[in-house]
Specification:
This protein has 209 residues and is of the alpha/beta class. The chain contains seven helices and nine strands.
Length: 209
């Protein structure tokens, strides 16, 4: 990468764009909502069950000017979801400001492992044991989404729920490959602990991106 390009990436004026697409939000509070997804490359959290491991290496995704990203998004939707990878690897301030200047609702899906930057209407915090969230984001998260891969994850979920603000909505979501095994346990757990809700990856059931 050229030095000038790297400097723009470091400033958040260019970002390693993996993909962008218009679809239906499949998970969490906004499931069923039409939204434009912006997937930013780069992640070192390294969840073994990640379903977009091709997003991890930022170097294989072309640095893209944020004006181009905003112009593309503006053709489709006023609800924008920025995901990854781990988008907070980069400075999200410049991109989110331009999106907000267009009157868009801007959401993020993040592990919270890095400093929170950007202007957000909705923060979906999905913490990972490998690299825990920064303290700041717990107070600002609108929803907590904990992925349940095995029974030990229920304990982790409770530990994370103790850290978020009182208005944060709590979700348990089965890891896709373990959904048949873990779903009954999640249902039982939510019925016994109704502060939690079940989140499903409905877009996979609908066979859409």
């Amino acid at each position: 990468m050229q030095k000038e390009t790297q400097e723009l990436v470091n400033k958040g004026e260019m970002l390693p764009l993996m993909e962008e697409f218009y679809t239906i939000q499949g998970e969490g509070f906004h499931k069923g909502t039409a939204a434009y997804f912006i997937r930013i490359g780069g992640c070192d959290v390294g969840c073994h069950w990640c379903d977009v491991k091709e997003s991890w290496n930022a170097d294989i995704h072309p640095p893209t000017e944020i004006n181009q990203i905003v112009d593309n998004a503006d053709k489709y939707s006023k609800t924008i979801v920025i995901t990854g990878g781990e988008p907070l690897t980069w400075d999200m301030g410049p991109l989110t400001k331009k999106l907000k200047d267009k009157g868009m609702q801007v959401h993020i899906e993040t592990s919270g492992a890095y400093k929170l930057t950007g202007i957000w209407d909705w923060i979906c915090l999905s913490p990972k044991k490998i690299k825990l969230p920064t303290p700041e984001i717990y107070e600002k998260a609108h929803e907590l989404k904990v992925i349940i891969y095995n029974k030990n994850d229920f304990k982790f979920a409770e530990e994370q729920a103790e850290k978020v603000n009182n208005n944060c909505i709590l979700y348990l979501q089965p890891e896709w490959s373990k959904r048949d095994k873990m779903m009954s346990q999640i249902v039982d757990y939510v019925m016994q602990n109704p502060k939690w809700k079940v989140s499903l990856q409905t877009h996979k059931y609908l066979n859409i991106p």
